[in-house]
Amino acid sequence: MAVATVNLRAVTSWVGIARLFAVVLSCIAFSLVASTGDFRGPYGTWCMFTWCFCFAVTLLVLVLELLELYPKLPLSWDDFTSAFSMLAALMVFTTSVVFPSTFISSPCSSSKCARQAVATTVSCLCFLAYSLEVGLTRAKPGDISSFLSTVPGLLKVFEAYVACLIFSLLDTFGSEAGLQWCVAVYSICFIVTLLIIIFTIGRCLTYMPCPLEKMLVGYNALALVMYITATVLWPLYSFRGRNRPDPCGRNCWWDRHLGVTFLTIFNLIAYLVDLVYSTRMVFVRAPP
What we know:
By secondary structure, the protein is mainly α. 73% of the residues lie in helices and 0% in strands. The chain has helices spanning 9-12, 14-36, 41-66, 77-103, 111-137, 151-169, 177-201, 212-239, 253-283. It is flat, with a radius of gyration of 21 Å.
């Protein structure tokens, strides 16, 4: 009869403690918001999904590591946990900004508003817990045994997430060839980046017929050039001859297109840093 092994370091190490804090804080956040009953609409649904999703997956990670069941899974566990902690940090950060800006209004004097304010504070602390986990699990310089825990690997998660935010802001881009090209850039880079993440977690990259590291450098260079064109073309075709409407409501097209512009710049910087780090990892070898 098999006996379950308990690994207490899963909850007593610094990484385990950060995960415990993340579980507790995310649970408190969605419980407080659920008690107000005010989380309708796309933004409220997103915030509740983020807290519940991060709570459930982090709790699952803790249980699997506590019982030492993760080696039985057909995936790279270190890559999975590194990618998830980075994704969770980005999702909770977005939620910590979106929720108060959408649901908390001034003056904040009611009991409902107080609970929403506490939920926002707890969500910010949850973001810090996930950020701490990312910092603790990040690979040391020169260590590439877990790709998604390296700076280029974490940037891959960031790039994919920012692309998702861009997609959420896209509404109509008409028949303008420049805007259609930008959407193609966002889509192509997102799909390739997502496949890299999935193949890394699934341990499939070793079957590639060409050197992986050099292939990633080539892809990062191509993605950088494509995002440079999108950074120029998107604002050029979006705002040329079109002023900001007055009034400009919450779902105003002008604000959405401006958000896409800034997110495009963020991803451009991410791909640039990714290319620099990837190039150093491949072509600059540390002295023995």
